[in-house]
Inverse folding.
């Protein structure tokens, strides 16, 4: 059974992302809701970095959606794919969308290594991913579709066998990355896979420094280690190597002082 948000949390979440109500479960409303998610909920490892700095991997958990949103409302923090997909899936179900989890793999490293969300509208499926944050639902059909406006959020969706592959560019190096959808997931594919992935070498290195990505009215802002990378809608990136990181985290990414004052910045990620 899908996890539902409490009425209080739901009201606070919709208020914060600027949506009064969702009058219907159609593509137009899903598009509005997904764009609001992309512009307001960061993809980050901030909570993980703080936990690992003091407690280690044993204390890494996947919060219940109510707790995830309570943290986001109070502190501005998001999460990685499993945490954000679980919360996003819960928000969609609470608003009566027919959403399901899909297990996927990104760049075929440590498969499966990704959790995403697919919404069915009528008889048509749409991917609404919390990592590539492309700001529009991606339809799954039997032919290739390229979304390239704006370039910063360009995605190609290709049928592959009995599934689909998404191709897009990463927000930092702007190199191509692919995500292969594998299979529908159980209702709670969280704890075991989450801990397994977090303990792999690549994620141990990733979690040695802060990473935050959020879409903005101007494109994408990413903070990684000691750098800020801003990418405009044409896909052009500018790197700021000497930023006021806490100021950027507060004003551009929306983190509360209780996060920005505690967050360590590791030069090892630079």
């Amino acid at each position: 059974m899908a996890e539902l948000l409490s009425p209080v949390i739901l009201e606070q979440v919709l208020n914060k992302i600027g949506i009064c109500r969702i009058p219907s479960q159609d593509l137009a409303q899903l598009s509005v809701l997904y764009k609001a998610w992309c512009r307001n909920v960061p993809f980050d490892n901030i909570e993980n970095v703080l936990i690992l700095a003091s407690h280690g991997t044993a204390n890494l958990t996947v919060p219940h959606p109510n707790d995830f949103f309570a943290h986001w409302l109070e502190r501005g923090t998001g999460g990685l794919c499993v945490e954000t997909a679980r919360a996003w899936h819960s928000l969609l179900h609470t608003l009566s969308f027919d959403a399901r989890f899909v297990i996927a793999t990104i760049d075929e490293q440590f498969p499966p290594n990704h959790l995403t969300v697919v919404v069915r509208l009528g008889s048509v499926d749409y991917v609404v991913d919390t990592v590539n944050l492309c700001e529009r639902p991606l339809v799954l059909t039997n032919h290739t579709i390229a979304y390239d406006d704006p370039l910063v959020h360009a995605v190609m969706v290709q049928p592959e066998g009995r599934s689909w592959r998404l191709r897009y560019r990463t927000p930092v190096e702007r190199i191509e990355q692919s995500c292969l959808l594998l299979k529908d997931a159980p209702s709670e594919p969280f704890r075991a896979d989450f801990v397994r992935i977090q303990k792999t070498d690549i994620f141990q290195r990733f979690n040695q420094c802060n990473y935050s990505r959020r879409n903005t009215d101007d494109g994408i802002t990413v903070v990684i280690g000691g750098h800020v990378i801003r990418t405009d809608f044409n896909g052009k990136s500018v790197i700021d190597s000497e930023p006021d990181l806490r100021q950027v985290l507060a004003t551009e990414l929306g983190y509360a002082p209780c996060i920005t004052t505690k967050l360590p910045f590791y030069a090892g990620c630079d």
